[in-house]
């Protein structure tokens, strides 16, 4: 997928500590969006698209994006939707928002990606592919305008392994008795939390053996977009070697200390490149539930990319913020 | 109002799937009394509902509709590059039900899959998301699956809801075509200031564990925290004011009249609301098919269900589709349903 005439104006990431039960994804996403709009001096009333990608929504209904719309004071002339996506949320969200904005009468769109992963993986020992888990959200502001830079996105899935990363109960398959029996309370069990079959998930993402076309396509995207840096959402040891090698000297960035769910690749990008300024072309390769794997590239002005810490009482080592 | 417009895309098939279990509104007479049931039926137009089995999910219904359409039309499944599933009743919290549907339908690996969480405006929003992606994607078809089992989160004591909502799934195939002559247009509005007008308090990550026992809500109806609440007055006011306002604004912007359309396909909210919208936008009754009597309010599926049951495929039909509901969220789609388009209703 190639999306033209879209500029990325800035990114704000707000990270929190694990196990802060009072905070939801709408809190992190609202905080990130507010800081971004303030930094860029954009009024919320100018936003025409608000897309939230999360797998930890505040409510079943309505979509959490409506609460964020209300929090930010975004006007009624706006498209507001929730997308259920985490591991490849950046790719999915950019594909959706970029393509909608490009075909619309709107000027600005804000993409919010975030999770409160600690609510899906409670306990200090929880880890996601070897990393302790944290909560957070990122806000990305997109503007429709004539631009010579194109955004490339590619998405693939290996859905026969969908149960490799799953929460078996809590939705409408294997529905809990609280929904159809009088006077029942919800008893949370292990099946209500995230279950990861690393062997199955990694068997696909590291080898990509079932379809070499996917690997070749991803490598081709990397070459075509000519990035100055590539950001991965999982540690280096989990990736297919073909995605880590290239003849060009490209800087490769991985999460090393914590996994914050959907916003991880942007947290990694800003933490590693926060001392750089000016325009850069970054590629992102992300994998996650589904199983899914995706690619996108973004042209970014790093002087408009920030990370903020919500608090410091976490068990995991958080990225030092700019503020 | 935000607008999007696309050329070179066509709706090439619609299929709807309903559960075979029929619940007559008359069966609620013992619970709510003759007067209440008669008044409800007269106001809403609902006579019968369709209710899914306990082991039947929104994903199952949408899969049945999708499988029916793909197998009957013989579309090459490797050429479907985007799969969007709109629901508020997913199979699992993680992953998106779209992946499960992708697997069951046997689609190719180079396919973007995700769930959209929207209610009664979901078909129109989902169609616009799919159209945007398909316009930029290197593939021939996109598949929009929509499904809801609304009956799962309604208190059996809530007469305004339990006699109104039905379960349904649907599939819509969107395809590229060479001609850019026919345009597909969308208009949107959303109002987060009224996000509490239709809400299920528990079950999301703000309140993972709520109160399971039913207690009296502010409207004196016993509900648990896992059961939906609707502020009837807010939603009614929205439906008869904001929804027709969008239609009128859209027609004015596009310099069109309501008579330019063969059909206006309204979300089947309830008969009275639909009549008010018809009156405000000055549509003819014949332009607006009403299927709520036989099928109830099927949430995001009501527009594709209306197409599957009421629109003949003998000629091109110019349609204005309008969905509205929780959020609050409302949207329009101006499109053509081509002559000979696959159009089917199945029961399971």
List the helices and strands and how they pair.
The complex is a heterodimer of chains A (323) and B (348).
Chain A: E1 2-3, E2 6-16, H1 25-40, E3 47-54, H2 64-72, E4 79-84, H3 89-102, E5 108-116, H4 117-120, E6 127-128, E7 131-132, E8 135-144, E9 151-157, E10 165-166, E11 195-196, H5 198-207, H6 212-225, E12 229-232, E13 251-253, H7 264-273, E14 279-288, E15 292-301, E16 305-309
Chain B: E1 2-7, E2 9-18, E3 22-24, H1 29-32, H2 34-44, E4 48-50, H3 58-73, E5 80-86, H4 97-105, E6 112-117, H5 122-136, E7 141-149, H6 159-162, E8 167-176, E9 183-190, E10 198-199, E11 215-216, E12 222-223, E13 229-230, H7 232-253, E14 263-266, H8 271-281, H9 292-295, H10 302-310, E15 317-325, E16 329-337, E17 342-347
Parallel strand pairs in B: 2-17, 5-6, 5-7, 14-15
Antiparallel strand pairs in B: 1-9, 2-8, 3-4, 7-8, 9-16, 10-13, 11-12, 15-16
Attribute tags:
heterodimer; A: 323 residues; alpha/beta; six-stranded mixed beta sheet; globular; B: 348 residues; 10 helices; 30% helix
Q: Count every beta strand of chain A, where a strand is a DSSP E run of 2 or more residues.
A: 16
Note the main sheet of chain A: 6 strands, mixed
Q: Please estimate the helix content of chain B.
A: 25-40%
How far apart, in Å, are the first and last alpha carbons of chain B?
39 Å
* Number of distinct helices of chain B: 10
Computed CA radius of gyration of chain A, to the nearest angstrom: 19 Å
Structural category of chain A is alpha/beta
Proportion in β-strands of chain A: 25-35%
Q: For the largest sheet of chain B, list the strands in their spatial order.
A: 6-5-7-8-2-17
Structural class of chain B: alpha/beta
* Average residue pLDDT of chain A: 87
Ranges of chain A where pLDDT stays below 50 over 5 or more residues in a row are: 312-323
Task: Outline the biggest β-sheet of chain B.
Answer: 6 strands, mixed
Oligomer: heterodimer
* Strand element count of chain B: 17
| Separation of the first and last Cα atoms of chain A | 36 Å
Rg measurement of chain B, Å: 19 Å
| Mean pLDDT over all positions of chain B | 96
Strand content of chain B: 25-35%
Strand order of the largest sheet of chain A: 1-9-15-14-12-13
Shape of chain A: globular
């Amino acid at each position: 997928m190639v999306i033209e005439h879209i500029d990325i104006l800035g990114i704000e990431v707000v990270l929190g500590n694990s196990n802060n039960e009072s905070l939801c994804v709408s809190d992190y996403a609202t905080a990130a969006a507010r800081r971004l709009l303030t930094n860029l001096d954009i009024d919320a009333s100018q936003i025409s698209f608000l897309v939230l990608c999360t797998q930890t929504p505040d409510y079943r209904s309505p979509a959490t994006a409506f609460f964020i719309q209300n929090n930010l004071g975004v006007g009624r002339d706006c498209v507001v939707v929730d997308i259920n996506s985490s591991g490849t949320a950046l790719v999915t969200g950019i594909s959706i928002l970029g393509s909608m904005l490009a075909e619309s009468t709107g000027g600005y769109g804000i993409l919010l990606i975030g999770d409160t992963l600690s609510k899906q993986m409670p306990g200090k020992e929880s880890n996601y592919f070897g990393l302790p888990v944290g909560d957070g959200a990122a806000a990305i502001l997109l503007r429709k305008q004539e631009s010579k830079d194109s955004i490339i996105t590619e998405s693939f899935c290996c859905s026969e392994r969908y149960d490799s990363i799953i929460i078996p109960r809590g939705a409408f398959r294997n529905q809990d008795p609280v929904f159809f029996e009088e006077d029942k309370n919800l008893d949370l069990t292990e099946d209500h939390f995230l279950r990861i079959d690393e062997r199955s998930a990694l068997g696909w993402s590291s080898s990509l053996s079932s379809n070499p076309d996917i690997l070749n396509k991803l490598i081709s995207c990397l070459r075509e977009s000519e990035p100055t840096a590539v950001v991965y959402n999982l540690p280096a040891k989990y990736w297919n070697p073909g995605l880590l090698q290239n003849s060009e000297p490209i800087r490769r960035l991985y999460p090393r200390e914590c996994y914050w769910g959907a916003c991880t690749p942007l947290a990694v990008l800003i933490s590693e490149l926060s001392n750089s300024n000016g325009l850069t072309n970054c590629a992102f390769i992300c994998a996650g539930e589904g199983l899914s794997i995706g690619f996108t590239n973004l042209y970014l002005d790093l002087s408009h990319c920030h990370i903020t810490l919500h608090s410091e009482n976490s068990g995991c080592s958080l990225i030092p913020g700019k503020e | 109002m935000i607008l999007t417009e696309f050329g070179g895309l066509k709706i090439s098939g619609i299929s709807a799937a309903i559960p075979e279990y029929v619940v007559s509104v008359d069966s609620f007479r013992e619970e709510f009394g003759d007067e209440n049931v008669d008044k409800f039926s007269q106001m809403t137009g609902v006579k019968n509902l369709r209710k899914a089995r306990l082991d039947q999910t929104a994903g199952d219904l949408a899969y049945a509709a999708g499988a029916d359409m793909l197998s009957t039309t013989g579309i090459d499944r490797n050429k479907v590059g985007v799969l969007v599933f709109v629901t508020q009743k997913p199979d699992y919290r993680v992953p998106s039900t779209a992946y499960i549907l992708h697997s069951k339908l046997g689609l190719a690996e180079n396919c973007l899959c995700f769930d959209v969480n929207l209610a009664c405006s979901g078909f129109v929003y989902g169609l616009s998301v799919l159209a945007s992606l398909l316009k930029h994607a290197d593939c021939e078809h996109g598949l929009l699956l929509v499904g809801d089992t609304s009956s799962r989160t309604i208190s059996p004591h809530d007469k305004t809801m339990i006699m109104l909502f039905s379960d349904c799934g649907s599939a819509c195939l969107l395809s590229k075509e060479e001609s850019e002559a026919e345009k597909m247009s969308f208009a949107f509005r959303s109002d987060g200031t009224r996000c509490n007008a239709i809400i299920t308090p528990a079950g999301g990550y703000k309140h993972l564990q709520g109160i399971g026992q039913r207690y009296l809500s502010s409207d004196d109806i016993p509900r648990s925290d896992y059961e939906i609440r609707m502020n009837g007055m807010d939603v009614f006011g929205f439906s008869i004011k904001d929804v027709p306002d969008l239609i009128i604004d859209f027609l004015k912007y596009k310099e069109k009249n309501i008579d330019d359309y063969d059909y206006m396909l309204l979300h089947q909210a309830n008969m009275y609301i639909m009549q008010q919208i018809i009156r405000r936008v000055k549509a003819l009754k014949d332009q607006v098919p009403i299927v709520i009597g036989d099928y109830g309010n099927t949430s995001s599926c009501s527009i594709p269900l209306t197409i599957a049951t009421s629109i003949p495929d003998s000629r091109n039909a110019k349609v204005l589709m309008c969905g509205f509901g929780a959020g609050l969220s409302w949207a329009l789609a101006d499109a053509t349903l081509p002559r000979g388009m696959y159009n089917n209703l199945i029961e399971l």
